[in-house]
Amino acid sequence: MTNAGNELTSLITSTPQEGRDLAVKLARKSIAAIQTDPEIRKSLRKSYAEDTAQLIASAQVVAVEFQTIAMANNYWK
Amino acid sequence: MTNAGNELTSLITSTPQEGRDLAVKLARKSIAAIQTDPEIRKSLRKSYAEDTAQLIASAQVVAVEFQTIAMANNYWK
Amino acid sequence: MTNAGNELTSLITSTPQEGRDLAVKLARKSIAAIQTDPEIRKSLRKSYAEDTAQLIASAQVVAVEFQTIAMANNYWK
Amino acid sequence: MTNAGNELTSLITSTPQEGRDLAVKLARKSIAAIQTDPEIRKSLRKSYAEDTAQLIASAQVVAVEFQTIAMANNYWK
Amino acid sequence: MTNAGNELTSLITSTPQEGRDLAVKLARKSIAAIQTDPEIRKSLRKSYAEDTAQLIASAQVVAVEFQTIAMANNYWK
Amino acid sequence: MTNAGNELTSLITSTPQEGRDLAVKLARKSIAAIQTDPEIRKSLRKSYAEDTAQLIASAQVVAVEFQTIAMANNYWK
What we know:
Six copies of one chain form a homohexamer.
Chain A: H1 16-34, H2 38-49, H3 52-72
């Protein structure tokens, strides 16, 4: 996975696990694109990490991002 | 990305990062198509940028728009 | 786009922008199919156009409708 | 569209508009499969037809069902 | 449909209607996988079967499961 | 299914049922990636396992993850 910086340079990953990690990263970056203040993001973090409805909604975002990544990698077949 | 104006002229982008940027832009334009008053949109902005449930819902919209853009670009392969 | 009337006759559009417009139109028509009274729809309009959670949910509907339209148009490639 | 009865016999429709109609019908049948009492469904109807959040959520269901139907019909091309 | 037992052995169904039935079944099994106590599930049933927002959310799950099943059956064409 | 450890090494499963099991596992791992404290996750568990809205939302995540897995396995055909 060659997306160490802030720019997304590729959807290709070596393994499905790296694909999952990239999906989580993309979900986080979407939120950072809307709430650009890192201090506010930090203060908000506790509110969703202990709210199961929001944890489930976050998992839904990861699922959609992962579907795209899995397609890009031809499902690592 | 040749979508500098208000019209969406193409889903093709040079890089995955530009695809992410376009996905965020499309999500924003959808909201502007429904709430057409820019002053009201501005006043609403704070309410969702500090509400984690809405930030997560916004990230979901970006994920679906990005899936379409990624397909259009054959995943930048 | 040859969908000027009330009937959806085609998913094919000339440009991506017309595809976006059609996606918004389809989302609106779904709501009109459920709430058939135009007066009630009009009275409801303010309640969602100033509620960011509902604006984001509307943008999600547009994103899914647009994905279908983009596929139909082979992403306007 | 040859789905006049209660059984879904085909996803193929003559026109995109018939595809939209089938999508709405499938969404309604899903709800009837869970809440099987038609009297209760009738009494519930008003509560969602005047609640914009629920109207938007219903439109989301229609959008996903329509995507499947559009794929089945090769987008009526 | 040869999924009479508790194990999902195939996504292939004879008709679209059997595909719908399987989609509802899969949605129910997902919930049973998380809330494993059948008595609690039974007691919860009334709360969502009379709550339109939850009925609509359930219909959304069925729509996504059905999309997968329809793809698996090449849309019964 | 060769994903016994914490790493996701493959999306390929022997049967559709194993695909369902993997979908549930991926959904759970997404939540664990966001709420990393296992004690807090345990304490949160009761709150969503008895809340039908959250059970339905969880089923939606499973449906999307399963769609990806089903595609990867060519629908076990």
